[in-house]
Amino acid sequence: MAARKEAMMNAVRQEMALQNAQELMNKANESCYAKCVTRPGDSLSSTEQTCLSRCLDRYLDAFTIVSRTYTTRIGKEREARDPAALS
């Protein structure tokens, strides 16, 4: 029963992580588009392409930092709750 509960919780965590990543990308796309594409048209200028690339890179860098920090924190909290579980 406990293993089933843990498996279900892991599935929910994975789904939430996926939704968070999708939301981040949607917000990054909207924000970067609004910032970088000043005159929408049939194609992007090289300036707009560069701006979009840099903007999305910054969002992904921030997401990576937050994800690593969050993962580390969760690991420390689990270890503090049940140090024997890591052995």
TrEMBL record:
Keywords: Chaperone, Disulfide bond, Membrane, Metal-binding, Mitochondrion, Mitochondrion inner membrane, Protein transport, Translocation, Transport, Zinc. It is a peripheral membrane protein. Pfam families: zf-Tim10_DDP (PF02953). It is found in: Mitochondrion inner membrane. Heterohexamer. The lineage of its organism: Eukaryota, Fungi, Dikarya, Basidiomycota, Agaricomycotina. This is Mitochondrial import inner membrane translocase subunit. Transmembrane segments: none annotated. Belongs to the small Tim family. It comes from Pholiota conissans. GO terms for molecular function: metal ion binding. Its main location: mitochondrion. The twin CX3C motif contains 4 conserved Cys residues that form 2 disulfide bonds in the mitochondrial intermembrane space. One of its GO terms (biological process) is protein insertion into mitochondrial inner membrane.
